[in-house]
Amino acid sequence: MTEQDKGEMAAGLAAMGQAESIFSEIELFEELTVDEVRELVRGCETVHYKAGQTLFEQGDRSDALFIVGQGELEVAGSSPLGEKVVFAILGPGSVVGEMSLIEGGPRSATVEAVSECEIFRLDHATFDEMRRRRRPAAYKVILGLAATVGQRRRETDARIQQVFEDPASHIDSFESQLHEMLGRMRKS
Q: Which of these, 47, 12, 34, 175, lies nearest to 122 by C-alpha position?
């Protein structure tokens, strides 16, 4: 083995260790053992994006989960009027596209690199193979996804309940948004 090969191997091990550290801090993977995290990391492809590059577009078929190792991503969608709406800026340790592991529906947003990014990409086919082989990591991730979906549903239900408990306090905001939208429509 040459010195260059040794150097590349050491760099690869260091990168894997960094990825394992990032994955271990993510709530979705909190129930995984060290070996299960390692297995998940090995199933990922490391992809680098430059600022302005798009990971995926709203409406694309979802086929992978993405984890930010370094850099920042912008999650945005289109309003009914076609305007860009930024939903979130995600940094290291953030997960996007997690539902693609269990279903392949259309993407609900566009995700673009804000800065240079190192992204860990776990595609649906790799995850599905882990599941078919009955790997505990896959099932623990599915349970984590179920918990995430449940939490989002509870938050949505709570927000709806707030509106129904005091609709008058929300009607002004709704009316203001409606007038603003109509004004923009008239200008176009």
A: 47
